[in-house]
Amino acid sequence: METTTYSLAPWSLSDLFPGSASPEMQAAFDELERRTAAFENHRLELKPDIEARAFLLILDEIEQITRLSNCVDGFAGLDFSADTQNQAAQAFLARASQFLTGLQNRALFFEIWWKELDAANAQRLMDVSGDYRYFLEKTRQFTPHTLSEPEEKIINIKNVTGANALNVLYDSITNRYSFKINADGEGQELTRGELMVYARHHDPDLRAAAYQELYRVYGNDGPILGQIYQTLVRDWRAEQVELRKFNSPISARNLVNDIPDTVVDTLLDVAERNAGLFQRYFRLKARWLGVERLRRYDIYAPVAQSDKRYEFEVAADMVLDSFNQFHPQVSQLARRVFTEHHLDSEVRKGKRGGAFCATLTPDLTPWVLLNYQGRPEDVATLAHELGHAIHSMLAEHHNAFTQQASLPLAETASTFGEMMLVDRLLATESDAGVRRDLLFRQIDDAYATIQRQVFFALFERQAHELVQQGAAVDDLSAAYMENLQRQFGDALDLSDEFRWEWVSIPHIYHVPFYVYAYSFGQLLVLSLYKQFKNEGEFFKPRYLKILAAGGSQAPARVLSEAGIDIFNPAFWQGGFDVVSESIARLEALPVGQ
Ligand SMILES: [Zn+2]
């Protein structure tokens, strides 16, 4: 066991390039240009009876081009994140992205040919394609929903001034909003992000004021924003259902995620049946806050205030130790991110906010960005992002197309990593206030990630039908209020301005039906965690196998090979049972201790 301690530090990008203006970078541009030109020469070989060997060589070539492109693109993005005010980094990001888009367009003919190839020959080639198989399969899943080339071109051209333009318009309108609130003895003008900090404030009046102001502003434009939504929903149906022949509006998204329609329906049904669970939590929270009943304004109210801070060295030790307790291989992989200096942990002026993990190619340890400030949630974020990195590293034997897990599985290792850390904290933290705070925050997060998103998805499913039947914006607001009533029952007081909440959710505009993926990922992890608790050591190899599959198989198959049946409602119920147990732990505590 290593005993190195790790301190706050910036990352090094030298495993990629010495700099954006270096000769090595210029050499990469030259090589990409040369390889792409060579690749274009294969166009003539792409015939239905192409020999398997020749086909595999072509695949290897695109994969090599993809790896090098990812290094250039990755360097540009990471260097910019490290200092968003650096003009050279800004300029290089734009230059790299333009160059790489040009290359992609030149190589696009391969994908088009592959999608159009007859089924028998496609099968023949997939059978010998090894680790490329799922990538090839996935591309062809869209074949039945792909139109002719001229039709696809027209859709692309008209989208620029159609659906895409409406989304840009929605962003332009809503990004200009400023919100006014009286706080700390003075009137303030805030962005939405700044305003919503008050949703978690200890002062109940400020929490109410924040929501009232949010929906006052959105509500003022409600009819226009609602009209934009109706048009996008009509466009979605016209394209996905009428032209591309998907069974339903949500099916188009399900295929992108490669999740069968019935699995998504089961997930949404089970979640809806568990509405009572979070209602129970809100009643519990009301008791802790000393009120008869919570208002919708209060659901993220802090119950306990702990100002506990953790030095980075301590946090890194805790996270690595919790990983090590699960499996030494997991902590060894996480250490690679530290020892190779792929972690930018410190807060710096100009550095991008938030946190992320970037996996570029299978042969490079991922890079992780944090803005570590020592709060308990910062420790959780460290565990979360290192979880992503571990997921990628366990799957590094795959190729550039199949290493990274697809969306429904993408949050598995990260969320699991957080849960390992929280378990360790709950077991070792001596301060009862900190422990209680951790539990409340965990359930707050579960609510926001699972149930809130499920009810958005249920609303979307209904809204896409209502619009088809000619519903007006007010009808959609009424449907939204009914959706909230089903979600909260009589556990919350719901005030009328929430009728405009739906026009304030960018996801339902930009990426219809995206939101259920959050619930899917979180419930999956909770359910896995429950199995871990029940099975102990037996569970570990199955879990590591799921991660090691990366994106090399369909999610349902990865999971079924680990003995998990996502078609079975009981599996999803298992996730809710974990939340229920956490709520029970809090219910067992005497209120106010
Ligand atoms: Zn994540």
Topology (SSEs and partners):
Blueprint: H1 23-40, H2 52-82, H3 87-116, H4 119-126, H5 133-140, H6 149-161, H7 163-175, E1 179-183, E2 186-190, H8 192-196, H9 204-220, H10 222-243, H11 249-257, H12 261-273, H13 275-289, E3 294-295, H14 312-326, H15 328-339, E4 343-344, E5 356-358, E6 367-369, H16 376-394, H17 407-410, H18 412-428, H19 432-468, H20 473-488, E7 492-493, H21 506-510, H22 516-535, H23 539-548, H24 555-561, H25 569-587
Parallel strand pairs: 3-7, 4-6
Antiparallel strand pairs: 1-2, 5-6
Helix pairs in contact: 1-2, 1-3, 2-3, 6-7, 7-10, 10-19, 12-25, 13-25, 14-15, 14-16, 14-18, 15-16, 16-18, 18-22, 19-20, 19-22, 19-25, 22-25
The chain binds zinc ion.
Rg (C-alpha, Å): 25 Å
Mean pLDDT: 94
Bound molecules: zinc ion
The best one-word shape is globular
Oligomeric nature of the chains: single chain
What's the N-to-C terminus distance?
Answer: 39 Å
What's the total helix number? 25
How many strands? 7
* Helix content class: 55-70%
Structural class per helix/strand content?
mainly alpha
The biggest sheet amounts to: 3 strands, mixed
pLDDT < 50 stretches:
none
- Classify the beta-strand content into a percent band: under 5%
